[in-house]
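User: Last request for today: this protein with aspartic acid, please.
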Amino acid sequence: MKVLKFGGTSVGSAKRIEHVADLISGKGRNIVVLSAMSGTTNTLVEIAEYFYKGNVPGAQETINGLQAKYDATIAELFGDSEYGERARAAVARSFAVLRSFCNETLTEAGEKEILSQGELMSTALMQNLLEQRGVRSVLLPALDFMRTLPGGEPDMSHIGSRLRRLLDMEPQAELFITQGYICLNDRGGIDNLHRGGSDYTASIIGAVADAEEIQIWTDIDGMHNNDPRYVENTAPVSTLHFEEAAELAYFGAKILHPACVLPAKLHNIPVRLLNTMEPEAPGTIICNTTPAGTIKAIAAKDNITAIKIKSGRMLMAYGFLHKVFEIFDNYHTPIDMMATSEVGVSVTIDDRTNLANIIDELKDFGTVTVDEDMVIVCVVGDLEWHNCGFETKVLEALGSIPVRMISYGGSNYNISVLVRAQDKVRALKALSNHIF
Ligand code: ADP
Ligand code: ASP
Ligand code: MG
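Assistant: Here's the final one, the structure of the complex with aspartic acid:
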């Protein structure tokens, strides 16, 4: 059994939904994970914002606009068929949920319910289309098995046992359809795995179902060697190690949700990145083995803040770093990069929620300076330290760009540099030109 996940663009129109139905039919008893149609989750976020602001007419207008899109998609997919009626009824239930918030104050739980409607609708459309085509597919409601623990981690044993039971109940099924992104939390409320989280759903399902492979189908032919949104002439990377893929996803390669690599890696299940618009393209395979001694790809993570703490006392005096880290810890703020010297330490964060408090407390230990609007540019590959010359290559490429921090040796797979946001595209292009 394989897990096949299709992203928002892949199911973004009636034509695309039909194309995905072609791709998944007759390919074995696989589990297909769908995102919401592209644009839907953003629109649902907007609707929730209107409700939070008490702007009910704004919400109503946005809901009506969204419904018109779904009505048109259903008309194109089904015409007047019986399955069209079923799809219409399912979508109507979602719009009734959205409109129910016109008469009540929106809470966080309500917002999560609003955000869940996109995946509920896309899967209802696909399920009815497959049935109309005579494919024996079964809809597995994600809310019947996908659950998180306190703290938000997936409850793998619960998900595994519930999913296996659901699969065993349908021996006749040719394939299964389920929603990405949505789940129940530990309190039993509707929740989600954060934006882009359908990749994570696919990986969790792949892990608990011991899948042969997890396929992430999207709008590009695999992981490219640089960010195609900023750099021309990027090329797909054929093979990546799990660790390389994890670094790239965490440091900005949007094609993969950062959390999605871990479940696959732990269960040693290959992840294949494929292009829905070009299904024959080889894409990228992410697995346990990969060509050694090569740089694979470059990514960039935006909205980074660098904080420097210069100590009046000796930095390496026992306990200094502990005290600094404790402050970040107390404010649940992860550190991405760090660099130390005898007289100071620099760290970077991307969650600025508690920045003011953190700075205030750090001032007890030294002089604090902050650089905002920074970007981590991350070069990923098999960069095991005995391989000579990779660091030089990276720094040579960045010869004319001011570099605020450098990090190397944290893993065998990455060299990271911190530059100003205004230098990001120049840095990405310079690295591509120099390295590939
Ligand atoms: P989906 O909706 O299918 O989940 P996403 O938009 O989340 O798709 O991810 C695909 C997009 O990721 C691509 O269209 C591309 O613009 C972007 N992207 C960023 N970095 C990379 C990279 N290194 N390789 C491939 N795609 C990348
Ligand atoms: N629909 C959700 C989003 O847009 C989840 C996903 O597409 O992965 O973030
Ligand atoms: Mg995505």
